[in-house]
Amino acid sequence: MAGTSRFWKMIVLGALAGGAISLFKRETRTAVFDSAKKTSDNLVYALKNPGEITDTIRDAAKKIQHTVEQMNDDIVYIAGKVEELRDTTPQLVGILKDTKGAFAKKEEGEGPETVSAMAGGISGEDGKDPILSEVILKEADTVGT
Question: Which of 22, 40, 47, 93 is deepest in the core (most CB within 10 A)?
């Protein structure tokens, strides 16, 4: 036990010696004294105005609490949306399979059916022929897996 105590004493003495040696340089000495002066001024101010310090700490704690509550609300909202997606995804897969079954019925040996749909424009020189686009429905065996 005595060896451990001596070890820590020597560590502290070494740190003090290193600090004292570093103060030989003028810039370091000035920076240390300025920092110590600012720290002592802040400490004196805190001792003379404890109410202001506690008010500042209370305000910071309220801001943190408000931020945590907002984050909690956001997490609850996102969790609800994820659950809603989990509920609607199987329904959407069912609708897609039903739609595939209605439009993609094919006889053996035939290719996929095509369905013409209005694209919503006008073509042709006389301006009367509708624009048609063909929608090719392909096998969607991987839907829902």
Answer: 93
Spatial distance between the Cα atoms of 92 and 105, rounded to a whole number of angstroms: 20
- β-pairing, 114-123 vs 129-136, is antiparallel
How far is residue 80's CA from residue 87's CA, in Å, rounded to a whole number? 11
Domain limits, the chain: 1-48, 60-145
**Tens-place pLDDT, residues 48-96:** 999 999 999 999 999 999 999 999 999 999 999 998 888 888 888 888 8
The position carrying tokens 């500042």 is 56
Element at 114 (helix H, strand E): strand 114-123
Structure tokens at 47: 């001792």
The label of the residue with tokens 């897969």 reads 93
What letter does residue 126 receive in the DSSP assignment?
T
Nearest to 100 by CA among 136, 139, 133, 135: 139
Q: Distance between CA atoms of 143 and 99, rounded to whole angstroms?
A: 12
The two three-digit tokens of residue 100, written as one number:
């595939």
